[in-house]
From TrEMBL:
It comes from Osmerus mordax. Gene3D superfamilies: Zinc/RING finger domain, C3HC4 (zinc finger) (3.30.40.10). PANTHER family: RBR FAMILY RING FINGER AND IBR DOMAIN-CONTAINING (PTHR11685). GO terms for molecular function: ubiquitin protein ligase activity; zinc ion binding. Residues 1-36 have a biased composition (Acidic residues). Belongs to the RBR family. Ariadne subfamily. This is RBR-type E3 ubiquitin transferase. The gene is ARI1. The keyword Transferase applies. Keywords: Metal-binding, Repeat, Transferase, Ubl conjugation pathway, Zinc, Zinc-finger. Residues 149-237, 153-202 form the RING-type domain. It catalyses: [E2 ubiquitin-conjugating enzyme]-S-ubiquitinyl-L-cysteine + [acceptor protein]-L-lysine = [E2 ubiquitin-conjugating enzyme]-L-cysteine + [acceptor protein]-N(6)-ubiquitinyl-L-lysine. It is an enzyme of class 2 (transferase).
Length: 237
């Protein structure tokens, strides 16, 4: 397992090769590129007028009374990545999986560690709706046993070569087009972030951040997803 795997939100417009496993583990790619957006006020309302510090105070209030810290989206993401990194120093999972585990425990690191070392990892991972990464290689081996023939996608029923199919560790594979459409609908129309699951019927395995970043090409959708994830993190900061 590669504990150095980065937690990458990518916001470039370059076309990414989406062939299977091509960019899942790249220890050198530890960059963190984030577009700066409106500041978000931790623990408070979104600052509509864009003012920071004490300028929005009412009469009779001192600057010291202003208890909200204004953070940019980038700073929030840094806090989040730092939180994931701290946990990963101990439990060493892919960062994208640790994010899901932490989300499940409302970003309570201690609670996660406690459960993690409690021993019943299968129960923990199934509760968090992820596949235990230590069992990953077996699943992957099973799924890469490919056929040369085109096969039908179970969503759109169109035939595509095996290389055009992708999926989560649960093993359910769908064509890239359907994945992109599915994720875009969830993110843009339904405003879902950390609760998007595999499109397969009755599969509850959650989509991880790297998969979203890999399968979504539109930066607008990526940015919305990032907001949804960081906003849920802010709630528990
Ligand atoms: Zn399809
Ligand atoms: Zn599935």
């Amino acid at each position: 397992m590669d504990s150095d795997e980065g937690y990458n939100y990518e916001f470039d417009d370059e076309e990414e090769e989406c062939s299977e496993d091509s960019n899942e583990e790249d220890p050198d790619d530890d960059t963190l590129e984030v577009e700066l957006v409106d500041p978000v006020v931790a623990g408070g309302e979104r600052d509509e007028c864009g003012e920071t510090g004490g300028s929005g105070l009412g009469p009779g209030q001192d600057e010291e009374d202003y208890r909200f810290e204004v953070l940019t989206a980038e700073q929030i993401l840094q806090h989040m990545v730092e939180c994931i990194r701290e946990v990963n120093e101990v439990i060493q999972n892919p960062a994208t999986i640790t994010r899901i585990l932490l989300s499940h425990f409302n970003w309570d690191k201690e609670k996660l560690m406690e459960r993690y070392f409690d021993g019943n990892l299968d129960k923990l991972f199934s509760e968090c709706h992820v596949i235990n990464p230590s069992k990953k290689s077996r699943t992957r081996l099973m799924n890469t046993r490919s056929s040369a023939q085109d096969m039908p996608c179970q969503i759109c029923y169109l035939n595509y070569p095996n290389s055009y199919f992708t999926g989560l560790e649960c093993g359910h594979k769908f064509c890239m087009q359907c994945w992109g459409d599915y994720l875009t609908t969830k993110i843009i129309e339904e405003g879902m972030g950390q609760t998007i699951s595999c499109p397969a019927h009755s599969c509850d395995i959650l989509v991880d951040d790297n998969t979203v970043m890999r399968l979504i090409t539109e930066s607008k959708v990526k940015l919305k997803y990032q907001h949804l994830i960081t906003n849920s993190f802010v709630e528990y900061m």
